[in-house]
Amino acid sequence: MEEILNQNDLQHRFSDYYTYVETLEQGAFGLVVKAVNNNSKALVAIKVAVYTSNLDYLKSNYKRFEALEQEVAIFSQLNHQNIVKFYDIKRTDTKILIEMEIINGGSLQKLMYTKLKYDQWFEIKEIKQIIQGILSALSYIHDNHFVHRDLNRIIYLQEKQQILLKLLILD
């Protein structure tokens, strides 16, 4: 997998910054991998957004990439127990690497599918925790003059004794 992460990069390769551990999720945007930050030695999640090395494409999307960098810089200042922490953003020749807190529990969507598959139901206290977590995070975001426009597939659970919700606010 690390070969794929470094593929087509002549300078500033993924491996210059991180040591690959495993792939957590793959989708249309690219992928999310678990990695070790080579400087801090911290275990982190890296959202790898793949773009092209085509210079014309890159020039036409420069403002979009600049806006993404600005969003990550802003979001990295947010500090709330229900919001994933963003640490850094880096650019290689063909990828944008967004470094963030690693969430071990998986998505709420997957948990719901698993419960349905085995004909299980959420307890009322679990539903209450989930809803309170979402509302608390959204309230914090709004209090800081941000708006989250897409709550679809962004809710992740942190593995602890109780359900602790983390919202991935950059999607």
From TrEMBL:
The keyword rRNA-binding does not apply. Keywords: ATP-binding, Kinase, Nucleotide-binding, Serine/threonine-protein kinase, Transferase. GO terms for biological process: autophagosome assembly; regulation of autophagy. It comes from the Eukaryota. GO terms for cellular component: autophagosome; cytoplasm; cytosol; membrane; phagophore assembly site. Residues 18-171 form the Protein kinase domain. One of its GO terms (molecular function) is protein serine/threonine kinase activity. Pfam families: Pkinase. The keyword Transcription does not apply. InterPro entries: Kinase-like_dom_sf, Prot_kinase_dom. This is Protein kinase domain-containing protein.
